[in-house]
Design a protein that fits this description.
The complex is a heterodimer of chains A (115) and B (111).
Chain A lengths: L4 E3 L2 E4 L5 E6 L6 E7 L5 E8 L2 E4 L8 E4 L6 E5 L8 E8 L9 E2 L3 E5 L1
Parallel strand pairs in A: 2-11
Antiparallel strand pairs in A: 1-3, 3-8, 4-5, 4-9, 5-6, 7-8, 9-10, 9-11
Chain B lengths: L4 E3 L2 E5 L4 E6 L6 E7 L5 E8 L4 E4 L2 E6 L4 E6 L8 E9 L2 E6 L3 E6 L1
Parallel strand pairs in B: 2-11
Antiparallel strand pairs in B: 1-3, 3-8, 4-5, 4-9, 6-7, 7-8, 9-10, 9-11
Classes of the chains: A mainly beta (115), B mainly beta (111).
Chain lengths: 115, 111
Amino acid sequence: NAGVMQNPRHLVRRRGQEARLRCSPMKGHSHVYWYRQLPEEGLKFMVYLQKENIIDESGMPKERFSAEFPKEGPSILRIQQVVRGDSAAYFCASSPQLAGYNEQFFGPGTRLTVL
Amino acid sequence: SQQGEEDPQALSIQEGENATMNCSYKTSINNLQWYRQNSGRGLVHLILIRSNEREKHSGRLRVTLDTSKKSSSLLITASRAADTASYFCATATNAGNMLTFGGGTRLMVKP
C-alpha cells in the first residue's frame, strides 16, 4: 500500500513564475490537506479538500494560491507569480475520514525554492 | 502564541537517557497527536491520544494528556541515536479537519 505521493520533491522557480505541486493520497483516502513549513518552524495548515470540493481554505493566502482535488487524478496546489517568501516545504496529507477523529498520513513534501 | 507550543525548543541527551518533551495548547481539542520529522524529510505519525484519555504507550514512547492544564508530554525512554529528529505535537478540534502544529522540539541523541 503506497503512501502519500508528492511530486516534484524539489522545485526551483524564478520570481513571477508559476509553481504546481502534486499530491496523490493513499489508496482509499478521500480527504487531502496541504500544509506549509518554513525553515525551523512547524507546519501551518493551508487547505482541506475532498474530491471536487474545497472544504476549508482558511489557511491559504487569498491571492496567487489555489488548490483543487479533481474527480480523477492528484490534488494540485498552484502558486502563481511566485515570490521569494513562497520558498518553503509544502506537505500534503491524506486521511480516510474526518481528521478530527483519525491521524493524517503525510507525504515526503515538495521543497520549493524561489530565486 | 500559537496553539501547540513545544518545550523545550531543543534538547541534547546521551544515548540511553530518557527524553521528555512538552506541548501546551489553548483551545478545547478532540485529540492530540505527536509526529517525528527527520531533517529534510516528511512527518511520521507516532501516537494519537484522545481528549478522554490520560496516558498512552507505544513501544518506547509514552504520551500523557492533561486537558485541565491543556498540556501533553512525550517521553522517549532509552533513547537511541536514531531518535535524533524534530518532534511536533498537533491538535485537532471537534470541528475536525485541520491539524494545528507547534514549533517543534529538536532532539539530538549523542552516541
